[in-house]
Design brief:
Strand content of chain B: 5-15%
Shape of chain A: globular
Order of helices and strands of chain A: HEEEEHHHHH
Largest sheet of chain A: 4 strands, antiparallel
Number of helices of chain B: 30
Radius of gyration of chain B: 33 Å
Radius of gyration of chain A: 16 Å
Strand order of the largest sheet of chain A: 1-2-3-4
Oligomer: heterodimer
Shape of chain B: globular
Number of strands of chain B: 31
Distance between the termini of chain B: 40 Å
Largest sheet of chain B: 8 strands, mixed
């Protein structure tokens, strides 16, 4: 394994090579945003989220912290803060994993198979367990309302004044589908 | 790397303990209030002379809430402020036994002084020092108590005063005449550091057969060799063999079988071992197991085990259940010295590369005893005749051993043994002082497994590599003569003129300062020792940071420690600084400072600071001697340029944190409750008031920022600020009581009611399995009652703290339970109505997006309007006072509040509650610490310091150590070499750096790398990207000077004296393999 200092660079590179749209703030590597599409064959399909990724000092020994910036209705995501209670990220992270795993595997899995038994959003969990159809309906409404390309872009405008190099749009501007390839 | 990183903000350099807040520079306040309700053992309290914490004589004890409830019978007998870190290791029972123990230490040279120091700090009842001899100049190499002025005085008498200063509650007395064995009956444990074998056998026989037996320890350090022998009597009971908490597991299923398979949830790995005994509780269905009977287990696996019990006819397991290990006591049958000498049994091994040493040293120490008995003196330094004499005595003894005869006597080793045998070296004394001190604690308390029975150790590798002329060892009438007799005058001189940096002057730092002062490091004309620490002395430090006294509380650690070290050895050239070491102090610890150093010794308490120093040592190619302790455990790691890997090369996995959802709604142990309590404490008393102040200081700007953010978080923050200033704003103390009462209802009744409304007890998950299955615990709401002391105690702490945030004076009557109850009963508590939208799924409206998802922006605007209105009603200059958590002040109610919150929550979930002390250990993340393991770690490091300063040692001469005095276990091994990376015909390690001169542009650097067959795709400086091949925008930077990019993009500040800066380059070879290249230094001047 490469030295920890280079892991940030390599992981970021791999993420971009896998066609994820990465948005950095002033070329800092501690904290950045990544766009994430809801996986196919899930009620989240068609949704687009801005994911805030923070790499702690001890990365990759410590897991990256992941949060949804625009709202999502999900049993394991805190509705207010967007924090993810995802076992594999917070609990069983190993330095062998990298950011591509997070976006290609962990997050799609989370959206495809929510775990209502350990809810962070109790209301969503209860609804999912009692009435799957109503739950999926609610998920779609949230996607419709909060998870459109405008929502992801719109969030930038308010903040971008002091962030001169906010978006790395010139790269990967093609809006092709970059749906996480989860294997179910 | 034992010492864990702390959660606390900041604090890069500190001591070995954990006073978290960098800002708390105030001396500890003494407790107020009463200490009435100490539990058992009041019989000990009478005569043991331990400190009783100050009490406020005016307090009306009867109704003082500080002593009621919470299981917080904060015992009047242990000074918890002083001993908190040690209590975290030993627990109350062991401490009480220690407080009742009388110990004899015979022989007050270096080793005796170290043992006495450790025991006085630990707080035994009395220490009696025995020595018939006079202080000699020779003793000053290893004894930190004596100064040149003491030469000629009796050693025991000369030691009393300085030892007494360490802890006033220990009775210290002396015996200066010949000991008789009958005198030993006054003691629970006796230690001999300088005694003939003949006498030792006689005394030991007496102790062994005494009723009750007297624990007997014989310990010696002779040059670089040491030995310990323990005999705690024919039947010694060890109450706790390892000091670890009993392991537990949460049951998932139990079979009806013989034997029965028990499976646990895969939440956490089980730590049981075959043969362990366990008890069960809370099992539903198979209730027969809840009888509390210990049962044996086998086939222990990570998530299951086999129970040796026929459960075929038991009830069928339904759900629930916790399995807990029962710690078994152990009986040890010690042999007396007389027998053990002939039949020593298994030796405790410390170094596998020296597996054949212990029997040889066993023989060597007997031969030395015989030499001294015959000649009346020790072998002279570098005397070949004396060495030969010793060798021939050894081989004579060997001949008598029959079957146990050794094949190779290793004359070379015996020769060095003879040469140095008269010298007591400070590092050896420190190391063995720690070991023996711990054995005495074990003997007095039954806590931890004793050393059974012989331990031998040598550090031959510490000797200089080059053979030395015999003139080197001649005494020069200096305090270092003993050390010179082992290492020679050349090394002594090198040590004297060394430039050393000790980072931190806490527990490890104090010991290191003492050690280097005694060794004469940085005591010459060219010598220099820099010690830095940004922390101040607190009371809890005094139980092991032995250079500090109570009158130093509040003063800077480094200054006090440095002047104390100077009084040990006035020649020490020490400078004390109060800077924390980190990137922000690189103007203080600048390039010149680092370049001039010979060696760096870490005495730190957190991983981040260690990693920083490691990086600096790596950069400046300086040896780094690293160590740390955790309770009875310690480790040392040598980082030697180009020979070993660096500290950061291998790491422990980060500490496990409980998942958010568990802490949020489904706690299943007290840690979860405490984590929750701490975060609520911070939210209510620190963050919200701080947020309110932010609003008040500039309402316009604040509201604009919130409008711009426009998200759910901004909305949530505004709601809290508004709530705090509007609904919850308190004007009187009664308002605070109302607030506290309603919070109670919200936390411990309403939220639970809502949760069990959303997830009823019988709720199934999507798969049909019960939702409330292990490890989740089904909660029950609490019914508030003023007659419940726990409820009232919480209420008191919460209302007092809230009043503090609003600047409301706290009335005296709050401490009266009756008055508080009366006030509380007046509070009107509205009935709870569950939110129904989640339950009624048939209702059309409920499934559509509810009020929760109304446009955030609109709500925010509404909130801001209300807030502005509210602001206009506030008195001018209104401000709140945010409260920062401080665990070490027992009078500030912080821990009362946190323990209260945590315990009420624990009651909700039927989790066993904890007392305030235990809560403080967990929530305050107090790192358990004792003097013994600290002393030992520094001794081990200083044995390595000889090697570093002598120079020329190979990798195999160095040792890293992991030790656990509780077991006891010593594991020493060669350090790991650095990883070598090869590319084409080049190779490098982490110690290498590449240099590019002539102020290159980005393009030139890329070309420079390309010429080596390396394609760089990413270049960074600090945490900023200077170049990434994926960003077309970065192509514009090609022809800019790297130094300009570093200044502009990475905001790198380059002081005028700096000629270069460093970048990290990620690159691939031509076959697209990642190549980990060294840091690249760019020279721009």
């Amino acid at each position: 394994m490469s030295s920890p200092s280079k892991r940030r660079e390599m992981d970021l590179m791999k993420l971009m090579l896998s066609d994820y749209k990465v948005e950095m703030i002033n070329d800092g590597m501690q904290e950045f945003y990544v766009e994430f599409h809801g996986p196919k064959e899930s009620p989240y399909q068609g949704g687009l989220w801005r994911i805030r990724v923070e790499l702690p000092d001890a990365y990759p020994y410590k897991s990256p912290s992941i949060g949804f910036v625009n709202k999502i209705y999900h049993p394991n995501v805190d509705e207010m803060s967007g924090s993810v209670c995802l076992d594999v990220i917070n609990q069983t992270w190993s330095p062998m994993f990298d950011l591509v795993n997070v976006f290609e595997v962990f997050l799609p899995q989370l959206l495809l198979y929510p775990n209502p038994s350990d809810p962070l959003n109790g209301e969503a969990a209860a609804l999912m367990m009692r009435d799957k159809t109503a739950y999926e309906q609610r998920v779609k409404e949230y996607c419709e309302k909060y998870a459109k390309p405008e929502d992801v872009g719109a969030a930038e405008e308010g903040k971008s004044t002091d962030e001169e190099e906010l978006s790395e749009d010139d790269y990967a501007s093609s809006d092709e589908e970059v749906v996480g390839k989860a294997d179910p | 790397m034992l010492p864990r990183k702390r959660v606390s903000e900041g604090l890069a350099v500190g001591d070995d303990d954990d006073n978290n807040s960098a800002g708390s520079s105030l001396p500890k306040k003494y407790r107020i209030g009463c200490f009435g309700s100490g539990p058992a053992n009041s019989d000990i309290e009478e005569d043991s002379g331990f400190q009783v914490a100050e009490t406020n004589s005016t307090g009306n004890c009867k109704s003082d809430l500080r002593t009621m409830a919470m299981g917080d019978s904060s015992s009047a007998d242990i000074d918890e402020d002083l001993h908190s870190r040690q209590l975290a290791v030993y627990g109350r029972e062991t401490m009480k036994r220690l407080f009742a123990s009388n110990v004899l230490i015979s022989g007050m040279q270096g080793l005796g002084a170290e043992i006495a120091k450790n025991l006085v700090l630990a707080g035994v009842k009395s220490v009696t020092l025995h020595d018939e001899g006079m202080v000699e100049l020779w003793d000053l190499s290893s004894n930190f108590i004596f100064s040149e002025n003491d030469v000629g005085k009796n050693r025991a008498v000369a030691s009393v005063q300085k030892l007494q200063e360490l802890n006033n509650s220990v009775v210290i007395s002396t015996i200066t005449t010949k000991l008789t064995k009958e005198q030993l009956s006054d003691f629970q444990a006796v230690v001999f550091t300088d005694i003939s074998l003949e006498k030792a056998v006689e005394f030991n026989d007496y102790c062994h057969h005494h009723r009750p037996p007297i624990s007997f320890i014989k310990a010696e350090v002779r040059g670089l060799f040491g030995s310990v022998f323990c005999d705690f009597g024919p039947e010694f009971i060890v109450a706790d063999v390892d000091g670890e908490d009993p392991h537990t597991g949460i049951i998932a299923s139990i079979a009806n079988d013989n034997p029965a398979l028990v499976s646990c949830v895969d939440d956490e790995r089980l730590e049981f071992q075959d043969g362990d005994f366990v008890v069960f509780s809370e099992v539903k269905g198979m209730i027969e197991l809840n009888d509390g009977k210990p049962r044996k287990i086998k086939s222990a696996r990570p998530y299951s085990f086999i129970l040796e019990e026929d459960t075929s006819n038991f009830g069928i397991y339904d759900r629930g259940g916790i399995v807990t290990q029962v710690k078994q006591s152990k009986v040890l049958n010690f042999k007396p010295l007389r027998e053990a000498l002939k039949d020593p049994g298994d030796f405790l091994l410390s170094d596998f590369s020296k597996f054949d040493r212990p029997p040889l040293l066993h023989l060597a120490f007997q031969a030395l005893d015989k030499f001294v008995a015959e000649l009346g003196r020790y072998p002279a330094p570098a005397s070949e005749d004396d060495a030969q004499k010793l060798i021939s005595i050894a081989s004579n003894i060997n001949e008598t051993l029959g079957d146990g005869k050794l094949e190779d006597l290793n004359p070379k080793l015996l020769r060095y043994f003879a040469f140095g045998s008269r010298a007591v070296l400070n590092p050896m004394a420190a190391m063995f002082g720690g070991i023996v001190g711990q054995e005495v604690v074990k003997a007095c308390s039954g806590k931890f497994h004793p050393l059974f029975q012989f331990f031998y150790f040598d550090s031959m590798e510490s000797l200089p590599v080059e053979p030395l002329d015999s003139g080197e060892f001649k005494p020069i009438n200096s305090r270092y003569d003993a050390q010179i007799s082992v290492f020679g005058a050349t090394l002594q001189k090198k040590m004297a003129n060394a430039n050393v940096f000790i980072v931190g002057s806490g527990a490890l730092g104090c010991e290191f300062l003492k050690n280097v002062a005694l060794m004469g490091v940085a005591c010459g004309d060219q010598g220099k020792l820099t010690v830095t620490d940004d922390d101040v002395i607190e009371k809890s430090n005094l139980s092991r940071q032995f250079l500090f006294r109570d009158w130093n509380i509040g003063q800077a650690k480094s200054t006090v420690a440095a002047s104390a070290a100077k009084s040990i050895n006035p020649h020490l050239k020490v400078e004390a600084l109060q800077n924390r070491v980190g990137s922000e102090t690189e103007n203080v610890f600048d390039d010149t400072f680092w370049e001039n150093l010979n060696v760096v010794i870490n005495a730190l308490d957190n991983v981040n600071a260690r990693l920083y120093v490691d990086q600096r040592c790596l950069y400046f190619q300086k040896p780094l001697l690293e160590s740390g302790t955790l309770g009875a455990k310690c480790n040392t790691q040598m980082v030697i340029p180009h020979l070993t890997e660096n500290y950061g090369a291998s790491r422990d996995p980060p500490e496990k944190q409980a998942p958010m959802c568990t802490v949020h709604s489904f706690p299943h142990n007290i840690d979860h409750c405490l984590t929750w309590a701490r975060s609520e404490f911070e939210g209510l008393l620190e963050k919200t008031p701080a947020e309110v102040n932010a609003f008040l200081s500039n309402p316009g700007e604040y509201c604009n920022a919130m409008r711009n953010a426009g998200d759910a978080q901004a909305r949530d923050t505004l709601e809290r600020v508004l709530e705090c200033l509007d609904m919850e704003r308190c004007l009187t103390f009664e308002d605070c009581i109302t607030w506290a009462r309603l919070k109670f209802e919200d936390y411990f009744a309403n939220r639970v009611k809502q949760l069990i409304y959303t997830f009823p007890e019988d709720a199934p998950t999507s798969t049909g399995a019960p939702f409330w299955s292990a490890p989740k615990r089904f909660p029950h709401p609490l019914q508030f009652s003023t007659s419940d002391p726990g409820h009232l105690h919480y209420l008191m702490a919460a209302s007092i703290l809230l009043a503090e945030t609003f600047g409301i004076p706290i009335p005296d009557w709050v401490k009266s339970a009756d008055r508080l109850a009366e006030a509380t009963d007046k509070v009107i508590v509205p009935d709870f109505q569950p939110k129904k939208n989640v339950k009624i799924v048939t209702d059309e409206k409920a499934t559509s997006i509810s009020t929760a998802s109304v446009d955030d922006a609109a709500v925010i605007n509404e909130l801001i309007k209300m807030l502005e209105l509210c602001h206009s009603n506030l008195p001018p200059n209104f401000k709140m006072k945010p409260i920062q958590f401080e665990k070490d002040d027992d009078t500030n109610y912080h821990m009362d509040m946190i323990a209260g919150l945590a315990n009420m929550r624990a009651r909700n979930y039927s989790i066993p509650e904890v007392d305030k002390l235990k809560a403080k250990f967990i929530a305050g993340r107090i790192i358990p610490a004792i003097a013994t393991s600290t002393a030992m770690a520094t001794g081990l490091v200083c044995l390595e310091l000889y090697k570093v300063l002598a120079g020329g040692h190979k990798l195999e001469d160095y040792r890293n150590t992991f030790a656990n005095l509780a077991l006891p276990l010593f594991s020493m091994a060669e350090p790991v070499p650095p990883k070598v990376i090869k590319h084409d015909d080049m190779s490098w390690t982490v110690w290498d750096r590449w240099i590019v001169k002539d102020n290159p542009t980005l393009r030139e650097l890329l070309q420079w790398l390309k010429d080596k067959g390396l394609n760089a795709y990413s270049i960074s400086c600090g945490s900023s990207l200077l170049y990434n091949s994926m960003f077309p925008r970065h192509k514009d930077r090609m022809d800019r000077k790297l130094v300009d990019l570093a200044r502009d993009v990475a905001k790198l500040e380059l002081p005028p004296y700096r000629h270069h800066f460093d970048v990290i380059v990620a690159c691939e070879d031509d076959d697209d393999n990642d190549i980990d290249i060294p840091q690249v230094s760019i020279y721009f001047k």
